[in-house]
Design goal:
eight-stranded mixed β-sheet, globular, PLPL
Length: 276
């Protein structure tokens, strides 16, 4: 079983959508394949698992980029725009659709308070929780919002229903607010934010998908080398600079559509060398 792990990537998110489209069309990505991602990768994974088409998600990304352009840039403005688009695009039963998917769907983020831990969310009690976890995964300090983190409310508990003192302690602990940051910070540097699916035992092999060239960003975690990697081929420093600029700055529709098509082509190229 092959798992697909998607990297962060800011506004280069359309590349992931193109790869998903091609892998789905070639039957390399089915309901059974585990998928996980951080930040832009989490957005792609969640939208796909919730049955939002790549084209619909692409239009959402273009709207976010256009809104950032009108407001003077992307820095500090992305998180509320992302939440707005998720509310517009995800079906009302999105959490149920994702939960019922036979393959694991994972959204990575890091909790830094009240306890520091890496989280891979795989079950969602509500549509609101699904949206919140996507936004948690996309909270890159001082870029997604003006702040270094996002603070989430703790879970309410009925202290009157406790069975013992440990239950009481757990209830108080769970009621504390949670401070979270981007899923990029959940894995070692050589994974560049790509969740480790093999560590979970849900697949025999993981293909890492990055919006930036693997070698350029030091994403070396793929055991199988090139056959376990999908990312753009960049032929000059100028081209890489343009690509990186697209990750952190608004881009016109033409750039976004071309990036999507590039993901489709790279996904098809990978699939052509894979025997089902």
């Amino acid at each position: 079983m092959i798992g697909f792990s998607f990297s962060p990537g800011g506004l280069l998110f359309p590349y992931h959508l193109g790869v998903i489209k091609s892998l789905t069309n070639t039957n390399h990505l089915t309901e059974e394949n585990p998928i996980a991602g951080s930040s832009a990768g989490a957005i792609a994974v969640a939208s796909h698992a919730a049955n939002v088409t790549p084209e619909q998600a692409l239009e959402g990304c273009i709207r976010i980029s256009d809104a950032c352009e009108e407001m003077g840039g992307a820095r500090g403005r992305l998180l509320p725009l992302l939440e707005q688009e998720l509310n517009a695009l995800l079906p009302q039963d999105a959490h149920r659709v994702v939960n019922e998917r036979s393959g694991l769907t994972g959204l990575a983020y890091k909790e830094v308070f009240p306890v520091q831990k890496n989280v891979l969310a795989t079950r969602f009690d509500s549509r609101e929780q699904l949206i919140e976890d996507v936004c948690n995964s996309s909270m890159f300090p001082f870029f997604s919002s003006p702040w270094p983190c996002v603070i989430r409310k703790g879970k309410k508990s009925n202290l009157n229903s406790k069975i013992n003192d440990r239950d009481d302690d757990n209830a108080v602990w769970n009621a504390l607010p949670r401070v979270v940051v981007d899923g990029y910070f959940t894995v070692p540097r050589e994974r560049f934010g790509c969740p480790d699916l093999e560590e979970l035992g849900v697949c025999d092999r993981t293909v890492t998908i990055s919006v930036l060239p693997h070698d350029a960003i030091g994403l070396t975690a793929s055991d199988g080398g090139p056959r376990d990697r999908i990312s753009p081929v960049v032929r000059s420093n100028e081209e890489f600079t343009d690509l990186f600029r697209g990750a952190v700055s608004p881009s016109p529709r033409k750039f976004m559509v071309e990036l999507f098509e590039r993901g489709v082509a790279d996904g098809e190229a990978w699939a052509s060398n894979e025997v089902l």
